[in-house]
Amino acid sequence: MRMRKVLSSLLACSIVAAAIPVFAQIPETVVPTIDNAAVVVQEGVNAHQSMRIEGDVYAGEGVKFDNATHDYLDGDIIAPKAVDYQDEYSAILNTETNRKGVDKVESDMGQYLDQYFSGQYLVDNSTKPVAPSYAGVNFKKESNSWFSVNGWSGFPVDGNGYAYYTISQSTEFESLNVQGAKLVIDASAGPIYVKVNQSLSTSSANNANNVNVAGYIEIKGDNPVYLIAPPAGDIFLNVVPVGNPADKKFDFANGNVTWIVTDGGWSSAIGSTDTNAKVAANIFSETGKDSITFNAPIRGDIVTNAKNVTFGNTSTLDGDIYSYGTGTFSFDGKIVGDIVTKATKVELKNSGQYNDDRITGNINAINAKEYSVGCQMRGNTVTSAETFVITGGANTEYVANIKGTVYAPKADVKIHATSDNGIRRGQLIAKSLDIFGEGAVIWGHAKNPDDEVTPAPAEPTEEPVVTPEPTLEPLPSDEPIELSGGYAYIFGDEPVDLEGHQTDWVNMAPDRKVSREEVSAMIMRMIDQEYDTTGLKYELSEKVAIYSGLWYARGLAYMDSKNAFEGMNPVWLGPVSRGEVAKLIVLGLNLDAEKAVDTGMADVADNMYKTYINIVYGYGYMNGRGDGTFGAADYMTRAEFCVLFNNIIGRTGMGLTTADGTEVTAETYSIMDLGDSADWIVDAMLKATSAYDNAGNVDLELRQHNIRNILDNYSGQTER
């Protein structure tokens, strides 16, 4: 189970007051925003030394600059009084080189600010997720009070020399220790509950081949497993060995595990005594201890009630975290997911001095009073904090910046020294703003894609030689766009390992929700290949301009030209429903509305995308769930999208063999996360990521040419 949730983009048109799991959904809160605004503050803006702002500045009590030697501002300043340029250095903002835009004195600032600072958008509607109940479970109780599985205990041994003990029914232990061996929990026949009352641990020891290896727990079967145990200092949970056991390499498995962390044990730390420890499970921490520390790489979601939560700097969380404690939330690792915290103090650190995005999801901190950012963040932030500080490390390589919108209407925001600290691609909405130090950055909706201001070109000394661009036939504007190509259109991604290196294996993420930008890019790829239109450029409108230079910009620009994003400014990124995917397909491929067929399904009748659903249903591209519903409002997964697109391009009935008869499998493409997926998912995704020759055979060489998205052509697309 993954507790992925709905959290809309905060960019431009919507700000959501909370992030929540699917079983505790919070209503979306929409805040209209000011077009092209980079900074919106209720009080004042004070900029000291050097800074760069891309976008307009709205300040309820005025704007002041001092010692602004290298300031750059691309946008207007709107305030109730004239801008205060305090010294000769700040006058540089009145030069054409460093200033684009004008100063405007506006007596009625309320028309801009009232919508942001009414307080209605910080209402806490979150619901605490409830840990799965295990009351009434009949446990088989082991008589041995200290049960140990190890390499010399006489248990059966697998081909890799691991002794193993198998649990196939709900079992209770006083203590459980796995040393240089594995505990197998077999859930093939149904859900399994394993309860450990005192201590759960794994540790390294020699296996039957006299090789020192770490103990671990492996899950078999498709049914859920519930592990009820105290926190452990050293745990390999739900991992499988990769390669030679002597390498001691492990990888996450795909088991469905929920770990209910109970009181007891040696410590309140998970994974603290072994930096190689890994946990692949959803974690509910019911411990009553004052603090809990996570120091292991974790794949799964975390729900914890501990007052104070610490996440170590060597750890990665591939999931979401819900922290309901009211103390300090200190995150010093990496998270590929969202954060919801009720802590009064939030600290986002980078003591490991990493130069990548440490937090890739959105953050909701409604109860916070203090908030500090010392790392790179990709997502958006909603917080009630009264102080909000952005400050990086001493080394300018390790900047602290937020690549999203910050909605902090109660906060006095301070951006401290270190070049490039700041907020990128999103608005800052706050009580006040102070900028200190060299090179602080706020790039709003008019984000400059370059790090420095582009100087004016020198006068040419001679007439340049102009090579005319080839004339391309435009795409048909009204007639349906037919796709039948044998090209690969989805490639997955290569994760980064614990040392920060790109892996040599690929994740296809079949269960992840497909996003608006992914759908647009894949439609564009297939059209470009089918019609040889990679040289055509589509206008990067105001809705799309902030994504200039990103791999999906071309796809968004194309779909925007089809009026697919009404009401979005800019285009919102993120998951899309099955109904909206139908709309994108119909508009992107000019499907004929006269071929629409009423689905007759109850959940389509009142859906806003009904017209588009009936069209793709009439074409036979999408069908219902098999239970009388279409799932119109459900988010579409990447695997479901591949089924849809395979239907469109006639690939559904094709095989998975090359011309010489070699069978194509997930291993052919180094795909690691399809092992436990249903057959239809594996079939659909392998066909989607394969290229085909004219005889219908998989063409590995052509796919290699497709790969890494040469077709997206974003560098050419962004030459405006």
Helical proportion, percent range: 10-25%
Radius of gyration: 28 Å
| Average pLDDT reading | 79
| Class per helix and strand makeup | alpha/beta
In words, what does this structure look like?
The chain has 720 residues and is α/β, with parallel strands linked by helices. 11% of the residues lie in helices and 26% in strands. It is built from nine helices and 47 strands. The chain has a 29-stranded mixed beta sheet that branches. Strands 9-6-3-47-45-43-40-37 form an eight-stranded parallel beta sheet, with no helix packed on it. Strand 16 and strand 17 form a beta hairpin. Helix 4 crosses helix 5 and helix 6 crosses helix 7 (679-688). The longest helix is centred in the last third of the chain and has 16 residues, at 516-531. It is globular and about 85 Å long. Residues 1-32, 445-462, 464-471 and 708-720 have low confidence and may be disordered.
What does this entry show, briefly?
The chain has 720 residues and is an alpha/beta fold.
Helix and strand layout, with pairings?
Blueprint: E1 37-41, E2 44-48, E3 51-54, E4 56-59, E5 62-66, E6 72-74, E7 77-79, E8 84-85, E9 99-100, E10 103-105, H1 110-113, E11 140-141, E12 146-150, E13 164-167, E14 171-179, E15 182-186, E16 192-206, E17 212-214, E18 216-220, E19 225-229, E20 236-237, E21 239-241, E22 250-252, E23 257-261, E24 269-270, E25 278-280, E26 282-285, E27 291-294, E28 298-299, E29 302-304, E30 308-311, E31 316-318, E32 321-323, E33 328-331, E34 334-335, E35 339-341, E36 345-348, E37 357-359, E38 363-365, E39 370-373, E40 376-377, E41 381-383, E42 387-390, E43 401-402, E44 406-415, E45 422-424, E46 428-435, E47 440-443, H2 516-531, H3 553-561, H4 578-588, H5 610-619, H6 638-648, H7 679-688, H8 700-706, H9 714-717
Parallel strand pairs: 1-4, 1-46, 2-5, 2-46, 3-6, 3-47, 4-7, 5-8, 6-9, 7-10, 11-14, 12-14, 13-15, 14-16, 15-18, 16-19, 19-23, 20-25, 23-26, 24-27, 25-28, 26-29, 27-30, 28-31, 29-32, 30-33, 31-34, 32-35, 33-36, 35-38, 36-39, 37-40, 38-41, 39-42, 40-43, 41-44, 42-44, 43-45, 44-46, 45-47
Antiparallel strand pairs: 16-17, 21-22
Helix pairs in contact: 2-3, 2-4, 4-5, 6-7
